[in-house]
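Exam revision sheet. Question 4 asks you to relate a sequence to its structure. Input first:
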Amino acid sequence: MLPADRSLPPGQRLVSPLPVMHYGPVPRSRPERWRFTIGGATNDGAEREFTWAHLMALPAAEMVADLHCAKHWSVLDQRWSGIRARDMIDLAPPAENVDQVLVFAEYGYAATVRLEDLASARALLATSLDGVPLTPEHGAPMRLVIPHLYSWKGPKWVRGWNYLTAPERGFWEERGYHMRGDAWLEERYAYQE
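Answer key, structure tokens:
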């Protein structure tokens, strides 16, 4: 039941626990071989690659956030921990004319995200959920969480991002979903753009 002092984005219903949903197979987690890459239109034109050990040495962050799916369900108060996305942006900043990012994950999955949303104080590269490392089904070793956007904008099994100087559609955006995907504005489909 939804607490009296809380609300859901329009068109959403409350579910519990966090459902497991994904397109395609679940990759095997191998943090020792895993790399996080930031490329595209970086401020110096160079691509950066980070090992799991490098990322785990960065300051840890925690947040409690709701997760909203474009399939009309929401789950409340998920306790995520990991690395702030803005810390990664600081390590590999974009060129001045960048306003969109293509976040990519295993098996060629990608999601288009506005740089403003990725740099939000609440955008997190999550490695744990409720104090426990993510399971492979929930995105281990890392997934992106941007609470105000629909969950397809936060890929499981995230591997990095490319800064864009021209719009590019990710996996679901190519299939008719909205370029921004703000859950509170009900930005589900491309025809709404």
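Marking note for examiners. The mean pLDDT is 94.
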